Amino acid sequence: MIQSPYSKTQLRRARAHTAGGFTDRILRVFRFDATVYEEVRHDRNAVTQAMAIVFLSSAIGLIPILSEAANSPVSEYVHPFWFVLALPLPLLGWMCQAVMLYFVGAIVFRGPYTDTNITQVMTVTGFASVPGLFGVVAEFPVAGTLLGGVITVWMSVLQVIAIREVFDYSSMLNALGVWLANMLALIVVMLTVLGIAALAFMLVWR
Questions:
Q1: Distance in angstroms (rounded) separating the CA atoms of residues 56 and 168
Q2: pLDDT tens digits, 76-115
Q3: In sequence order, which residues have a C-beta less than 8 Å from that of residue 134 and are 6 or more positions away?
Q4: If phi over 0 gives left and psi between -120 and 50 gives alpha, with beta otherwise, what is residue 142?
Q5: More confident residue, 190 or 124
Q6: DSSP symbol at 4
Q7: Which of 118, 125, 147, 205 has a CA positioned 20 to 30 A from the CA of residue 139?
Q8: Residues near 63 by beta carbon (within 8 Å), at least 6 away in sequence
Q9: What angle do CA 107, 179, 168 make, to 5 degrees?
């Protein structure tokens, strides 16, 4: 029987945090505490918390975009209703990305200890999106661009840690490889969808 790469002490420590609240989990993500991912992946209710993080991050991230659009030449076409319509899109993207990441990490690059499901992948990647809560800093001129880059790198590092935990990889390099493979797959899918959409548009409006 294959044994988990985690010691009993590590697993007990992860379960000991289960009594902690939503805020405590977010703070542990900020501290790069990898045990929080092991905890939330086994908590069936944590996927709701992960969804809340993704939703709040997307809502906050839309604020600078709408603010810039409101001050642009097309401001007369900007309506708060577009903000409401755009909110579900990041949630849909999060779910699709989790499905693809599961395929890459649990099927294509499955490790000897990998034992997970799509819901667990959604949960850990949702928690790894916590830095997105600071997306409003993009509103600041000059510094906003720099801080936005920091947040992107920060989130990427957390995603790699989350991948290692949810797929039970023994090496961070394995997790990094899966993250890169998943990003490449996402780019290919997005370009394919855009290509099909552009082709359909040209066929309809030619």
A1: 28
A2: 655 666 666 667 888 888 999 999 999 999 999 999 999 9
A3: 60, 147, 151
A4: left
A5: 124
A6: P
A7: 125
A8: 135, 136, 139
A9: 55
Residue range 156-182: mean pLDDT, rounded: 95
For residue 104, give the 3-state DSSP assignment. Answer: helix
Q: How crowded is residue 151: how many other Cβ atoms within 10 Å of its Cβ? A: 19
Asked if 97 and 178 count as a contact pair (C-beta separation under 8 A), the reply is: no
**What is the average pLDDT across 133-154?**
74
Which amino acid appears at position 120 of this protein? Answer: Q
Confirm if 2 and 126 have CB atoms less than 8 A apart: no
Q: Which of 161, 158, 160, 168 is nearest to 30 (CA)?
A: 158
**What does DSSP assign to residue 116?**
-
- Amino acid, single-letter form, for residue 203: L
Q: Please tell me the distance from the alpha carbon of residue 201 to that of residue 25, in angstroms, as a whole number.
A: 45
| pLDDT tens for each residue of 5-23 | 555 455 545 554 444 589 9
Both tokens of 2, joined, read 């294959």
Q: Which of 49, 86, 93, 51 is nearest to 66 (CA)?
A: 86
Q: Which of 116, 147, 101, 142 is nearest to 38 (CA)?
A: 116
